[in-house]
Design a protein that fits this description.
Length: 107
């Protein structure tokens, strides 16, 4: 933060959460799409289809992990932004100013 303040920009966090949600939505079905593409490719490859099928079986767990990580990322960002906003709202009533206990200074 360039201003030296402590805290978080809840609007920016919510925007990043929405972007992560869009990314996660695009990943839903990634595993099934990959599997269907590899099966289709293997059918059309003829005698070299076993290489494509081996590639598919080797990569399927990784594709599943990528899909789950994208969904978890979106959930985590949104939950974090929500908690920050909730905390700011809850503690906002008790905060008046940073220097309220400072005595006046006369020059």
């Amino acid at each position: 933060m360039s201003s030296g303040e402590v805290g978080a920009n809840t609007w920016a966090a919510a925007e990043k959460g929405a972007q992560a949600e869009a990314m996660a939505e695009s990943m839903v079905g990634l595993e099934e799409t990959f599997s269907a593409l590899m099966d289709d490719l293997a059918r059309k490859a003829g005698w070299i289809s076993s290489g494509y099928l081996n590639f598919k079986y080797d990569l399927e767990p990784e594709i599943h992990t990528v899909q789950q990580n994208g969904i978890s990322l979106a959930n985590g960002i949104q939950a974090g932004a929500s908690k920050i906003a909730e905390n700011d709202y809850d503690s906002g009533d008790g905060f008046t100013e940073a220097w309220s206990n400072m005595p006046p200074v006369n020059f």
